[in-house]
Amino acid sequence: MATTLDSPRSPYARPTGKRGTNWEKWGWIYMRGSGVVLIVLIFGHLFVNLMIGKGVDALNFGFVAGKLASPFWQWWDVAMLWLALIHGGNGMRTIVNDYATQRVTRGIFKWAILAAVVILIVLGTLVVFTFDPCPAGSPADLLPKFCPAI
């Protein structure tokens, strides 16, 4: 017995024969690819932070400062940050497309999601690459114990 499916009800369905980039297809592919890479990055992050060494007891400011002093971990964290934020933003965009019925409301929500993702990516990247646990000129009583006395 053959079963036929109705055409999608989405007002964003691509008319057949239209040329150009299919952004929905590339968004779908990105979600699958970034999801796989995020699984590796997140479980690697958890393994290093929780399983190697003393476990949760070792997580403190010094541990994080030591990790962020390494370019490898800086890039690992930035890749995780970027992929997770873009992945989440794309998922939120899909939800807005599915449930926001008014064109103006949909546009406002999508611009707000884009603004939040861009701001968080910029701020997070700046934090990772400019982090200095021992800033020059800080009072000695406010610095961590591992900072050299200046």
TrEMBL record:
SUPFAM superfamilies listed in its UniProt record: Fumarate reductase respiratory complex transmembrane subunits
Gene Ontology CC, one term: membrane
Transmembrane segments: 29-52, 72-90, 111-131
Keywords: Heme, Iron, Membrane, Metal-binding, Transmembrane, Transmembrane helix
GO molecular function: metal ion binding
InterPro entries: SQR/QFR_C/D, SuccDH_FuR_B_TM-su
Protein name in UniProt: Succinate dehydrogenase hydrophobic membrane anchor subunit
